[in-house]
Amino acid sequence: MLTTAVKRVARGLLVVLLVTIAAQALLSLTPGGVAEGILGENATDENIAALNAKLGLDQPPWQQYLDWLGGALHGDLGSSLVSQQPVREAIIERIPVTFELAFLGMAIALAAATVFAVVGATRPGSRIDRALNAVSSVFLSTPGFVAGPLLVYFLAMQLPVFPVLGWKPLSDGLGANLGSAFLPALAIAVQEIAALHRLLRTDLISTLGEDFIAAARARGMSGMYVMFRHAFRPSAFSLVTVLGINLGRLLGGTVIVEVLFSLPGCGGLLVQSITSRDIVMVQGMVTFVATVYVLMNLLVDFSYGLLDPRVRKVMTA
Length: 317
Fold this sequence. Notes:
Helix content is about 80%, strand content about 0%.
């Protein structure tokens, strides 16, 4: 068990390292530089060269990466080349917004998908199952940058239930905070509802056809009891895998929604850093997202043992 855990953690660290190398390589290929952006159009070549030397950007990319990596290994992700704000401090300031959006979006998607899947799997092929599949197909073909404006139009402008734009922190009250977060989270959740619904519905239908389900029904257990006590848990194996992958992806995928709703999260910071060619800030953000993604997948791997005793035996063997 310990050896397996160490191997998976080592693979995760290798993934993060390769992602940071790829990010540095891609950033070094982008045209222009941060010095030109800071000094403006009237900057002379001498001024640009002097600022590049001051910021350490006159070094080759591999040297810049090794200097950054040395600091990162000691917990220092560097400081923004534009604002001089420490990268770690900037991420900590904005991560609550991104985390809340991602987790709230996933919670909405999981709740809706579970209802859709249970109803559909109870009577597969029925009218309501086909209707839910049709709704799921519409959701699947509606990305966040399309769902966001539509939700704003109908739920914020036509029916002024939620604010159009902006963010209310928890210090303004839980209701105000959730009100400002609901539409962006729902825009994120739309496609996830469809993906999770289809996956869970298929697994539930397969599990409900097993012999032990027939035995439970023969003992007089109710349909809902059999569904949630005997069928749901073994059917959630694939669901947990996808949840872990999608949650890590959502943390990096909230960029468009945050920009669309003018939210002060990591997505807006990443876009701002890319447009200003703030290499250090972009590298820090990429490292953070990759680390969270790897951690989520490690948690999913270790949760398999809790869902299925057969996997626990293999991991401890």
